[in-house]
Specification:
The protein has 661 residues and is α+β, with helices and mostly antiparallel strands. It has 5 domains: 59 residues, Helix hairpin bin (Helix Hairpins), CATH 1.10.287; 224 residues, D-amino Acid Aminotransferase, Chain A, domain 1 (2-Layer Sandwich), CATH 3.30.470.30; 76 residues, OB fold (Dihydrolipoamide Acetyltransferase, E2P); 161 residues, DNA polymerase, domain 1; 70 residues, BRCT domain (Rossmann fold, 3-Layer(aba) Sandwich). Helices cover 38% and strands 20% of the residues. The strands form 7 sheets. The protein has a 5-stranded mixed sheet with strand order 2-13-10-3-9. Strands 16-15-14-17-18 form a 5-stranded antiparallel sheet, covered by helices on one side. Strands 5-4-7-8 form a 4-stranded antiparallel sheet. β4 and β5 form a beta hairpin. α1 packs antiparallel against α2, α3 runs antiparallel to α9 and α17 crosses α18.
């Protein structure tokens, strides 16, 4: 046997044992015997570097640590899947599919919904070339060195084939338990569940750490080729190529078949070696998938059917109120830690003041906790028979616990909010990003990463502070060279010359969108009259109702907000006085509402065309709406228009109506 043959034989033996261990879960040799084979191959490759190759098992042991992950743009988006939680939603999904396809029955591919990390694998000429995380669905992280360390992922497939495979990296329950045993023995922090442990291992900058974890992989989609006409055939093809594919997969017919599969897997859930949080249904035929298409960021041909959340009882140690990025106040129960749905939970949401009162949760109570959708911990109910004597109702704050501004609540909302939008630290980043956005002050180059640094370094507390920044302040930020700092400073100066409607919108007043800001600008002509307008005066503005008028008055009555507005004016922010709104030609002004996607123009272009004719665009449908323009994937506005009897225009009709106005 030549040296080259010996190396090839060793590689084949090691990969066969990798497959037996990671894919078939039927190891035939001990860890020590496996390590001996690997050492022998490593020594041969070190003595003869010319025999090394990218598909060698030695490439799984990890390389030098990375400084950061590069971005990978997915060739086709890695979309999320809509969820169902009960039988009615599953039957509704099947009914929509059948009605769209115009058929009596549909065959579905069904498989477990793995609780791991979604990844994409690219093969070129049969060799594993790149691996990426899902990321935001459009752009992921390049984690190729780490995925090479996952024994279940083939480094080479049969033939010189180019293809993309998608699947899930996860950790078996028993491997997770062993990992936490090692963490405890080393006096290190334990991982809360197998999913977090697997995701953390894949996103390590040092692939040697990834290699030390026994990660698994299951393929669930073949993207770049469809050799057969069904999803189930594509999975069979992946299995023949050497990819692990769920042995629990099946094909079923109709809603009854889906529900029977859900029940069957549910009974086996606890016995599976890996964690799942539901099952996934996909229309089996690819041509039918293509016909069904997508809605928003999810396919119409697929559905994730979740299992009920796990529940446990524990004690409420206290109740705190958190302030979110939009100023929403959320009561949170601080709990005696309890293990629920694979996670140790010490906090649970109480949603809002009404929900807190309805459940009557108090400090010292024993409560039932569950993870809603297996994700968000929430308090389900109170065990009143175990309530300690002398317990008191929780008093909801009347002032923001972060900034001290008044807490306000609209009649049509369950959520109470802090009114200190431009001042409140909890809302600071969101307020700054909105202020700088394209439709508001349009500060080019002021993105989320820069805003994060400005807030964390305490350089900016309010939007007015943005205009006080010098080039030196900006150049001191991470990844901001002097030229970039100068460009941003110039963009800040340029944004000072704006319009009144942009400025009003940029303030981020609750319930005031672009259209309403435009109405205020046209009605009052300048800022001082708006600042002093009473609620009755605000109600004189076209299409402004009590909710909007109250939101504006509450915002402007907050001293912090008025102070920030004054500072903005002092920094040089200015605008020309607005011209009076033009009257509609040939009759009264018409009100349009846009919904869905138009094929021949963007929403901005449609809005501009309507306003150029002297008519207006509203954000919501009411009895005062004249026309609703419905494009592709129109939503609830279309349903409301039909309910109110408002005339609905398709794109062609819209252009005809607009041309006649």
């Amino acid at each position: 046997m030549t040296l080259e043959q010996k190396v090839r034989k060793l590689r084949e033996t090691i990969e066969r044992h990798n497959r037996l261990y990671y894919v078939e879960d039927a190891p035939q040799i001990t860890d020590a015997e496996y390590d001996a084979l690997m050492r022998e191959l490593q020594q041969l490759e070190e003595r003869h570097p010319e025999l090394r190759s990218a598909d060698s098992p030695t490439q799984r042991v990890g390389g030098a640590p990375l400084s950061e992950f590069a971005e990978v743009r997915h060739r086709a988006p890695m979309l999320s899947i809509n969820n169902a939680f009960d039988e009615e939603e599953v039957r509704a999904f099947d009914r929509r599919v059948r009605e769209t396809l115009g058929v009596e029955a549909v065959e579905y591919a069904a498989e477990p919904k793995f609780d791991g990390l979604a990844i994409s694998l690219t093969y070129r000429q049969g060799l594993f070339a790149q691996g990426a995380t899902r990321g935001d669905g459009v752009t992921g992280e390049d984690v190729t060195p780490n995925l090479r360390a996952v024994g279940a992922i083939p480094l080479r497939i049969a033939g010189k084939t180019d293809l993309e495979v998608r699947g899930e990296v996860l950790m078996y329950k028993r491997d997770f338990d062993k990992l936490n045993e090692r963490q405890r023995a080393a006096g290190q922090k334990e991982y809360v569940n197998p999913r977090n442990a697997a995701a953390g291992a894949v996103r390590q900058l040092d692939s040697k750490i990834t290699a030390s974890r026994r990660l698994r992989f299951f393929a669930y989609a073949l993207i770049s080729e469809s050799p057969a006409g069904t999803h189930s055939a594509a999975l069979d093809r992946l299995e023949k190529l050497g990819f692990p594919v769920s042995g629990e997969r099946d094909t079923v017919s109709g809603a009854d078949g889906l529900l029977a599969y859900y029940a069957r897997i549910g009974k086996r859930r606890d016995k599976l070696p890996y964690a799942i949080d539901g099952v996934v249904y996909k229309v089996n035929r690819f041509d039918w998938q293509e016909k069904l298409g997508f809605v928003s960021r999810a396919p119409r041909f697929a559905l994730a059917h979740k299992y009920p959340a796990e529940e446990q009882s524990t004690e409420v140690l206290g109740i705190e109120v958190q302030v979110g990025r939009t100023g929403a106040l959320t009561p949170v129960a601080k709990l005696k830690p309890v293990f629920v749905g694979g996670v140790t939970v010490s906090n649970a949401t109480l949603h809002n003041e009404d929900e807190l009162r309805r459940k009557d949760v108090r400090k010292g109570d024993t409560v039932i906790v569950r993870r809603a959708g297996d994700v968000i911990p929430e308090v389900v109910s109170v065990q009143l028979d175990r309530r300690p004597p002398g317990s008191e109702e929780f008093e909801f704050p009347k002032r923001c616990p972060i900034c001290g501004s008044a807490v306000v609540r609209s009649d049509d909302e369950a959520v109470a909010r802090c009114s200190g939008g431009l001042f409140c630290a909890a809302q600071r980043k969101q307020a700054l990003l909105h202020f700088a956005s394209r439709r508001a002050m349009d500060i080019e180059g002021l993105g989320e990463k820069i805003v994060d640094q400005l807030v964390e370094k305490d350089l900016v507390r309010t939007p007015a502070d943005l205009y006080k920044l010098g080039i030196e302040d900006l150049a001191g930020l991470e990844r901001m060279a002097e030229k970039s700092a100068a460009n941003l400073r110039a963009a800040l100066d340029h944004s000072k010359r704006t319009t009144l409607e942009r400025f009003i919108y940029a303030l981020g007043i609750r319930n005031v969108g672009e259209s309403t800001a435009r109405d205020f600008a046209r009605h009052f002509g300048d800022l001082p009259p708006l600042l002093e307008a009473s609620e009755p005066a605000l109600l004189q503005v076209p299409d402004v109702g009590p909710v909007v008028a109250r939101s504006v008055r509450q915002f402007l009555d907050e001293e912090h907000n008025r102070r920030v507005i004054d500072e903005l004016i002092r920094t040089g922010v200015s605008w020309p006085k607005s011209e009076p709104a033009p009257r509609g030609h040939g009759g009264a002004t018409k009100t349009f509402v846009l919904t869905g996607t138009l094929s021949g123009m963007s929403r901005d272009e449609a809005r501009a065309a309507i306003e150029a004719k002297g008519h207006k665009v509203a954000g919501s449908v009411s009895k005062k709406t004249d026309y609703v323009v419905a494009g592709e994937d129109a939503g609830s506005k279309l349903e409301k228009a039909r309910a109110l009897g408002v005339r609905v225009l398709e794109e062609k009709e819209f252009l005809e109506v607009l041309g006649g106005l």
